[in-house]
Amino acid sequence: MFRTHRSTMISNPEHSHEEAIWSCVEHCIQLPWFYIEVRRKNDDQPKVLQIMDPQVFVELLEQDTKDSYVEFVQLVTPPQLNGTHKWMMEELISFWHLYHPELGGSELYEVSEGKYYSMIDPDHLRSRSGIKKKILYTTANRS
Question: What is the pTM of this model?
Fold first, then answer.
């Protein structure tokens, strides 16, 4: 979901078989992604992750423990999703999986200021009954 170029690599992969460090990445598709702060007990510095796949975010949430937990999530959305002319980063309040037999599956995001984003047209959401919603994340249950 993102692209890297060898010319932007900072670290030498010969020194580390597990990771490489890049000075930049290119987002090659116009989909939302998550910017997540994970806290570990007795660690002052949060681990910051960019997660492009909603399923990977759900898997991270399932790993929450008292020693390591998701502290803060921001949703980064492309212009065609947020209705502006630029990418935006906003606090994620809630995140659902939606399913309707005719429309298929999609995600619904609630961000700060009460705005909602979905890959399914909002008019289709309002006009259909029988949409199944499963909440995957909410700040209301986080401490």
Answer: 0.82
* Strand residue runs (E) in the chain: 2-3, 26-27, 33-40, 47-51, 68-77, 88-100, 104-111, 115-118, 132-138
Burial class (CB in 10 A: 0-12, 13-18, 19+), 49: middle
- Sign of torsion over alpha carbons 54, 109, 1, 14: negative
Cβ neighbours of residue 94 closer than 8 Å, sequence gap 6 or more: 109, 110, 135, 137, 138, 139, 140
Encode pLDDT of 39-95 as tens digits.
888 888 889 999 999 999 999 998 888 788 899 999 999 999 999 999 999 999 999
Give the list of residues 6+ apart from residue 28 with CB closer than 8 angstroms, or none: 1, 2, 3
Distance CA(138)–CA(119), nearest Å, equals 19
Contacts of 140 (CB under 8 A, 6+ apart): 94
Cα-Cα-Cα-Cα dihedral sign, residues 59, 61, 67, 72: positive
Amino acid at residue number 72: F
